[in-house]
């Protein structure tokens, strides 16, 4: 039964969706399970990159941390998503840090096993390129937002993006199912914690959002959308 559940899970992961049952079983044979605690570093920038991570449960943030400790969060990944593929493709060290936002269960694949899968199933490479292209476009958009949007617009846009990717419908709105501190949200939008605190207070007063124990619920999405520009 457990093997069937794992097989069904792998088929839901985009890059493996086109694989046959036999190929899925082959992946399951070489994949290893790993668990990380909330706040645990999965890998650091410049670490050797020999492993692909596929998330089974939990949330992982990919971020850049400066020598003086300032952090910029690039993206948050959740169940069914993967990360760490860049270093597997080019053989270079990790380009960013990966940190568990909550308890994370994942499968890991070694570089050699991933390369063997690509050689046997070229469509995997195409699907990886599609995902990489999407992530590059997202990075370009982040740069554009930093240039053209004020802090209110950047926070509103990021909350809507998080609601789309990690939202859960609850009574009265959409709960962002990611535990976020003000500092973490600030690192996502390239602003100070004080500025983000002011914006969240304003959005709360306007009843656009509500907060509870580092969880944010969006109530008036249309108003937030209008605040972006």
From TrEMBL:
The keyword Acetylation does not apply. Gene3D superfamilies: Jelly Rolls (2.60.120.10), Winged helix-like DNA-binding domain superfamily/Winged helix DNA-binding domain (1.10.10.10). It comes from the Bacteria. The keyword Plastid does not apply. Residues 149-222 form the HTH crp-type domain. It comes from Ktedonosporobacter rubrisoli. One of its GO terms (cellular component) is cytosol. One of its GO terms (molecular function) is DNA binding. This is Crp/Fnr family transcriptional regulator. Keywords: DNA-binding, Transcription, Transcription regulation. Residues 15-135 form the Cyclic nucleotide-binding domain.
